[in-house]
């Protein structure tokens, strides 16, 4: 445990908890009230539920950051991926599987989690897939879906542009193989 109440890590954790985390939680509760309104149409309710799930995933990420700032221990990367992906797919019939484990540098962990999140969201939104498999290996992450492919056919894909930019920041490489039978994304670092 980071026991010094005056350390910079503890101060930052306290600020995140008392500020951003509390505001996100309050926003989530208000959103829950709107979702529960009996006068809300089903189309709007579905959209708001998607937003609520996204908000929950963001709040989980903030809580993970607070935990890591306050302790010397942290959740395994495997568990953090599980915690990020599960809420993203909970409103779908898409099955997901995470296997393996890696110990990325602390400076790389956030970027890798954001990349995995974006790849899963892309598969969810655009691939019409039934299965997503994430494999964690030393110096390599692969994300595979069984959807309709087409990743390379989107010249103005800001999501993939962001993925490439994030990976470049940490010196990682990406390889995408996308066909009508699915997409394989390999990240090496």
How many H/I helices?
Answer: 5
Number of beta strands: 5
Shape field: flat
CATH class membership of the largest domain: Alpha Beta
| Rounded average pLDDT | 89
The proportion of residues forming helix, as a percent range, comes to: 55-70%
Classify the beta-strand content into a percent band.
15-25%
- The CATH architecture classification of the largest domain is 2-Layer Sandwich
Question: So, the CATH homologous superfamily of the largest domain?
Answer: Histidine kinase-like ATPase, C-terminal domain
Major β-sheet strand ordering: 1-2-3-5-4
Q: What is the rounded distance between the termini?
A: 30 Å
Question: What Rg, in angstroms, do the CA atoms define?
Answer: 18 Å
* Tally of domains: 2
Q: What's the CATH topology label of the largest domain?
A: Heat Shock Protein 90
Question: What is the H/E order?
Answer: HHHEHEEHEE
Largest sheet: 5 strands, mixed
**Poorly predicted ranges:** none
> How would you classify the helix and strand content by structural class?
alpha+beta
Main traits of this protein?
alpha+beta; 2 domains; 5 helices; 189 residues; flat; Heat Shock Protein 90; single chain
How would you sum up this structure, described in words?
- The chain has five helices and five strands; from the N terminus they run αααβαββαββ.
- With 189 residues, the chain is an alpha+beta fold.
- It folds into two domains: 1-74; 76-189, Heat Shock Protein 90 (2-Layer Sandwich).
- The chain has a five-stranded mixed β-sheet, with helices on one face.
- A hairpin with a 2-residue loop joins strand 4 (173-179) and strand 5 (182-188).
- It is flat.
């Amino acid at each position: 445990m980071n026991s010094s109440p005056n350390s910079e890590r503890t101060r930052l954790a306290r600020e995140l908890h008392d500020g951003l985390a509390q505001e996100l939680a309050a926003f989530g509760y208000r959103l829950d009230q709107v979702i529960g309104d009996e006068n809300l149409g089903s189309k709007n309710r579905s959209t708001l539920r998607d937003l609520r799930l996204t908000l929950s995933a963001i709040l989980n990420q903030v809580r993970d950051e607070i935990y890591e700032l306050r302790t010397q221990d942290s959740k395994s990367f495997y568990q953090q991926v599980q915690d990020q992906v599960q809420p993203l797919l909970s409103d779908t019939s898409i099955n997901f599987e995470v296997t393996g484990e890696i110990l990325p540098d602390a400076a790389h962990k956030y970027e890798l989690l954001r990349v995995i999140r974006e790849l899963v969201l892309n598969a969810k939104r655009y691939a019409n897939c039934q299965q997503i498999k994430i494999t964690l290996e030393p110096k390599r992450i692969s994300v595979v879906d069984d959807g309709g492919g087409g990743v390379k056919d989107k010249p103005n894909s800001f999501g993939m542009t962001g993925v490439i930019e994030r990976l470049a920041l940490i010196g990682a490489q990406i390889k995408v193989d996308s066909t009508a039978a699915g997409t394989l994304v390999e990240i090496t670092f």
